[in-house]
Amino acid sequence: MFSLFFLDKYVAIIGDIVDSKQIKDRKVIQHKFKNVLADINTKYSEDIASKFTITLGDEFQGLLKSRNNIMNIICEVEMAMTPIELRFGIGIGEISTDINFDNSLEIDGPAYHRARKMIKEIESKRFQYTERDSNIMICSEENNIEIDELLNSILSVCTALKSKWTDRQKEIIYAYISNDKNQYKAANILNIGQSSVNKALSNARFYSYKSAIDTVNTFLSKDRGGTNG
């Protein structure tokens, strides 16, 4: 018997491009953005309640019915859009409207409100230098404040690790992630040696980052009631 902790809860993800108005060739970036989200919608179709869709040109949103791949989805979108910087708000909660699989703009509820709140909080903390920096934040329910704080602290450390990555390291990491986390496949795609892939991953402290991200994802995906059950 599951607890009521996540009963009938969904996961809303809202993301946007940082400083999008300063980006050259915004049409090219938007086209790339659409293709990346289309790939995510196909790859993770079984997890998705409402497809990831661009909403305001530089912003997207989607709704998950499964919590199994929250961080995988975010990481893959982030890496695919390199060197463009993104921020992500994750909201866990109820949905108050009917769910339209093809149009997330028609959906509303606490899950989306919490995701939006996190986007605003990330933005506000950019200019508060005494605050920890993070480009991903989670908000669930009022009685989960301590859990949210713990998860957001881990995500802040992940942001700190990512901030040291070079564009080349990001390219190699994305090739590694998108090719079954196989160094040889990544090396073949990039036309480099496997040892170069291994060196880049090690120098980027990628496995420390991955361990932290996996910890967050494992916690979020645990069966505590909800749509996974």
Automatic annotation (TrEMBL):
Top-level taxon of the source organism: Bacteria
Pfam families: SatD (PF16264)
InterPro entries reported in the protein's UniProt record: RNA_pol_sigma_r3/r4-like, SatD
Name by which UniProt lists this protein: SatD family protein
Organism: Clostridium algidicarnis DSM 15099
